[in-house]
Amino acid sequence: MSATVERWLRIAGTGAAFALFGAASLVVGLLAAPALALVSGDRDRRERRVQRLVHLSFRAFVRFVEAAGVIAVSVRGAERLPDGGPCLVIANHPTLLDYVLVVAHLPQADVVVKRSHWSNPFTGGVVRGAGYVPNDTGEATLEACVARLRAGRTVLLFPEGTRSPRGRLGRFQRGAAHVALAAGVPAVPVTISCEPPGLMRGQPWYDVPERRMQFTLDVDEPIPTPPRPESRGRASRQLTAEYREHFAKRLGLPDA
Amino acid sequence: MSPDEVFALLKGIMVREFKLTEDEIQPGASFEELDLDSIDAVDLAVSVEEKIGFKFDTDDLGHLRTVQDAVDLICARRPKASG
Predict the structure, then answer these.
(1) What's the CATH code of the domain at B19?
(2) Which of A163, A207, A208, B5 has a CA 20 to 30 Å removed from the CA of A68?
(3) pTM of the model
(4) Does the distance separating the beta carbons of B16 and A231 come in below 8 Å?
(5) Residue A129's domain spans which residues?
């Protein structure tokens, strides 16, 4: 098969994947999540069930996109990811697919996401049903994450707050470190890389790379959180620098 | 408290809490330039309250842009006698 034909097939596969994702989001958000809400009783149970459904849907979706030849995914250290219990997971954010790839490996995850997802017709039902946390409310965002962790739930946060600039790490916001410090939990780092790079910020969906995108997720040992710091301003700066250093090192980037 | 004293107080808190140097903290410096986020703003407000009993409104915090804005607000709202 010629390289051109192969690339067109991947463009078609990518388009099909986007269409499937949109359709599945509507089904989950508008039908399945409300249905689960009806039978689930309390809020904690309801949100966990919707999150589980999202996890299973993403697992199926990732298999589809792999089968369509658009991407290949390998995960190293998956056993370090929690399958329950209070756990903070942090990841870098090079591509559009990162959230999907990580949640495909997390049966339960409260995810901190952009506010605009609440008003998006495709994602609104899902973020509401799953009880996700909007990232724009400062102290309230922090408190919501800490409350989830105290309730024994897993929280997934992208410290950059948005997709990384091409081939680099963005500025790390201090929210993740604040959450870790306030809840007294370590952070499990997931380093995501994609070669050749694709689905980056500002890149149209049909601009697929020359070769199939190979995603690698490296899950490392938890980064410890210092106990009860005197000044959370200082401690959060220190810890944020440690997080960034970890990802920079993992990605082989010169730090800073 | 004079505006200079209020500025010195804020500077002291910011050096201690946020690892900033004294030189960085000029009256015209914006909180954004100083890399202070919304959580830092809350911490700064708590420290000011502990030191001089001045309580910021949550709404006020969002409107402050520079260190001088905070000094002005504190001086304007604070009863002169209690300084």
Answers:
(1) 1.10.1200.10
(2) A163
(3) 0.89
(4) yes
(5) 3-251
